[in-house]
Structures are given as C-alpha cells and as structure tokens.
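Shipment paperwork, digital attachment
Item: protein structure file
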Amino acid sequence: MQLAYEIYESPMGPICVISDEENIIKLHFEQDKWMNYLSKHEDIVHGSKLCSEAVKQLEEYFDKRRKSFDLPLKPEGTTFQKKVWEALNTIPYGELRSYSDIANIIGNPKGRQAVGQANKVNPLPIFIPCHRVIGKSGKLIGYAGSRTDLQKQLLEVEGCCKNEEGSNC
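Attachment content:
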C-alpha cells in the first residue's frame, strides 16, 4: 500500500499528515517524530490528493472556517484506544471534557488514567480532538505527553481557552 505525506506550515509550526491510499493514518506535530517516521518508510511519496485535502481542511480549521473534519481516518490502536478516540469525536468544537467524562462515556468510570494514555498515543491529533480533554480541575494536563503548550494553542483556535483564574489555559 502506497504511503504519502504532506507538510502543512501551521501557525503552531510544521505539521506532517500521512496517508495510505484510502485514509489519513497519522498526524505529527514534532518534526523529529515525523522525520523518523518518514526515514523508516523509504517508499513514501510526497503529496497525494488525500493529504492535500487534509492540509486544506487544517488551513480552514486554523483560519476558524472549519469546526469539524470530513476525512477518512484510520487510526491504528487497541480496541480500548479506538473506543476512547470514538468518544473524543463526540466532543463538539469549542467544548471541553475531562478524562473522567470520557471514561464514563466509554463505560469505564475508573479508567481515566487509561483514557489519558489513549489520548497520549492518539495518532491523529486535531482530527481526533484529544486537545479538548482536560483535567477534572479544569487545568490542562498531559496533552501529547507534556505538550500543553500545543493544547493551549488549539483551544485558543476554538475559543474555549479561559484564564485569569477561570481555569483551563
């Protein structure tokens, strides 16, 4: 199966979108991670119709003209992780949920830490909106490991970043 990629120069820095012939399969923020991924796939090609459409939709998102994505996505993960990612897709643009909320949605009320781990390995951030998940206290915690700076930027795009001790950002 032919893999393709495209780099989008976002307001947050370069984002790499990777697709197979039918689906978007990965999105990477960190250049070292996508460079490592690309180096392991010597047959990957630059550009495809699907990657171009994904970049177009990301541009619209960052320009605040798109609130949801219309792309075929195929995240690789465990059954549990996929269940979490499906729940994340129910969070509306500009709204937030806690890790506990997501654990309850998937029928595993004690699984908030496992939800956090599933978020951490989400292969399609932004498209699967793990940035909309925050701590129960209202604080940004654990996004992409420790990249709450990225989470804050995404929440600012969506207009749901508070502060001045109104929590969140």
